[in-house]
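A sample follows:
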Amino acid sequence: MKRTNIGPGSMTYTVIYQKLNGDFASEIVSGSYSKSAVWQQAQIKFNKRVIAIMPGNHKVIMGS
């Protein structure tokens, strides 16, 4: 899976967000090494629907 670049920097993060239809999803992204900067970058990319950001590439399983 190719990482999406959400801003300057090359730190890998796993972002959990809510889609416009209400479903939850995750995506591997690269961005700033600053936690506050990457939070702002992710909020812009995912339309302010970010639930969590975790440093690194993590497998996320959504339960039903």
In short: Residues 4-55 form one domain. The longest helix spans residues 35-45. The mean pLDDT is 92.
